[in-house]
Amino acid sequence: MISRRSILRFFIVTGITMATPIALHAAPPLDVIASFSILGDMVHQVGGSRVRVTTLVGPDGDGHVYQPTPADARAVANARLLVVNGLGFEGWMERLIEASGYHGTVVTASDGIQPRNMAEPEAEHDAHDADHHHHGDLDPHAWQSLANARIYTRNIVQGLSLADPAGAETYRTNATRYLEQINAVEAEVNAAIAAITPQRRKVVTSHDAFGYFAAAYGIQFLAPSGVSTESEASAADVARLIHQIQQEKIPAVFVENISDPRLLEQITHETDARIGGTLYSDALSAANGPAATYLDLFRHNIRTLADALR
Description:
The chain is an alpha/beta fold. The chain folds into two domains: 30-181, Rossmann fold, CATH 3.40.50.1980; 195-309, Rossmann fold. It is built from eleven helices and eight strands. The protein has helices at residues 4-14, 37-47, 70-77, 93-100, 129-135, 146-163, 168-194, 211-217, 235-248, 262-269, 294-309; strands at residues 30-36, 51-57, 81-84, 105-108, 202-205, 220-222, 252-256, 274-279. The chain is globular and about 60 Å long.
């Protein structure tokens, strides 16, 4: 039995006082894989220091045409949680999971949203066959509505809490703060759009990634190609769009950070519309760019739209 005198001698020799906190080894962060950069940021906002997030499709990357690497398969195999968008956005994900041998939990962030149906009239199918083959009839870009971002956040909280029950309270606290930030950005968006004359709320973008934004906030988006960047606009599609821009006097054309701008540049040469700036659709910018987080992306897009349309 150790005597009280021996214990006191230990504290005197080592210099430790009874008030000195003894460091405990913190649990290692939860390894989470997010399919693309926007989801990666959402997971980071909710998970904080309790998670280590690896993003497969990084900033300015195009998730429509991404090709997973062997390093991606290894990362997925070692993960505790996998977060995907769903709605057919990651057409390569099923193959990646199979190749990695991953058997853990998969969180589909879009679960519970009301998806937009992209079914088109029969006469228009030819221009978008590749797109429908990739996505089916659902528009996967649900994050372009802040109301949907609240659903994404709740799904992420649930997935992290299941994988790491000890951190559940932290995740709920972080999510509450993040939802308040989402509400504040939504107020900015609504105020900016209210200042735009309704007749000017029409723009052209590279591909049809803003359908949820249009439905939520009342701006009409036209695109020469479909919801996937794999789609190629036909000459008839482009001619029809140019005619519409001329007839309706659409003021601005916007390039996207993930798309080739040459087609839109051609359209501006043949109309009075001008390039209104760059919109971030399916990916964040680099860390030093204007859309380094999901909420920065939203702020940048609405300011860019408002500046061009007012």
